[in-house]
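=== RUN LOG ===
request id: a7f3
mode: sequence -> structure
chains: 1
length: 182
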Amino acid sequence: MEHARELAVLVLVPLAVLAVVDGLWIHLWRLRLHTRPECAREHRLHTARALLFPVVLVLLYGRESTGIVLVSALALAAIDTVLEAWDTFEEPRSREALGGLSRAEALLHVILVSLRSASLVLAFAAKPAAAWSLAATGSGGSIPPWQAQLVLQGLLPGAVGVAALHVILALRIPCENRERFA
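=== RESULT ===
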């Protein structure tokens, strides 16, 4: 189980790098989805997912969670999966004026979903059965210092920054375009 937990954290590194390429470079910089009224719902979905990621990062990877905290991490990961599916459903309509989703971005999304899924499966599978009891208390042990440092000092600040950027950009929508975002 120890190796599964470590591998789950290591999978986060390429996931984070590729998520920056997709989320910041493609979505916000190159395509400027946040400025396009037809992409507003997609941007809101990205914003919601960006807000969930730091919480899941801390609860599942940044500490050895048990009980209600672990179940909460699972619930938030499930909500993120629903939002991810909704985003996939929304993209054809949202990107119609842009000629659709490029093959490169579609491939990138497949890789991101695969990495995210692999990391979550490994992280949850590494938890002992006793950790899943709602009556479980405490942190359930300690995580290796390298893992805490990678997650809490390496990945978390960037995840919080990306979430904040998404919120700021969502709030900067001109008033005349807000009704199109419904």
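=== NOTES ===
The CA atoms of residues 125 and 166 lie 31 Å apart.
The chain has a mean pLDDT of 91.
=== END ===
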